[in-house]
Design a protein that fits this description.
Elements: E1 5-10, E2 13-17, E3 23-27, H1 37-59, E4 64-75, E5 83-94, H2 99-113, H3 115-120, E6 125-132
Parallel strand pairs: 5-6
Antiparallel strand pairs: 1-2, 2-3, 4-5
Helix pairs in contact: 1-2
Length: 137
């Protein structure tokens, strides 16, 4: 079972550590001091689906050479500022990629494999787009 720890360091800065001893600096209201917790949720969602899409495309024998996901979240204007909508834009490169194969990989990730998507899906609506970027030669 994953266990994480968040420790207050100074001011409004915290260090979060995962069960494998990897750390990240967080800050509630000072972007110069760390990632905001609500944006960390977007990062977690993006990383979770990125891992899945990468693996699915390898299994389809269409490995990626580049993958970048931009998450754009729209939050309620009042506390607790829950995300209502999250849009994920996947930018990918690789040989023999098709939009159909990528769309299927994204769908499988968000609907079947990604635990973060399964958690936020009950609160926020998720939308996606995929852009195939030509490979540099």
């Amino acid at each position: 079972m994953p266990i994480t720890t968040v420790r207050w360091t100074t001011g409004k800065q915290f260090v979060g550590t995962d069960s494998r001893n990897h750390s990240v600096v967080l800050s509630g209201d000072d972007p110069a001091r760390g990632v905001s917790p609500s944006q960390m949720l977007l990062i977690g969602l993006s990383a979770c689906t990125a891992y899945d899409v990468l693996e699915i495309m390898i299994k389809k024998r269409k490995p990626l050479t580049m993958l970048e996901i931009t998450a754009d979240g729209q939050q309620d204007p009042t506390p607790p500022w829950a995300y209502q909508r999250i849009h994920l834009k996947y930018r990918v490169s690789g040989n023999l990629l098709t939009e159909e194969a990528l769309a299927q990989a994204v769908q499988l990730s968000l609907e079947k494999y990604c635990s973060v998507a399964a958690t936020v899906r009950g609160v926020a609506s998720l939308s996606t787009e995929v852009e195939i970027v030509p490979m540099l030669e």
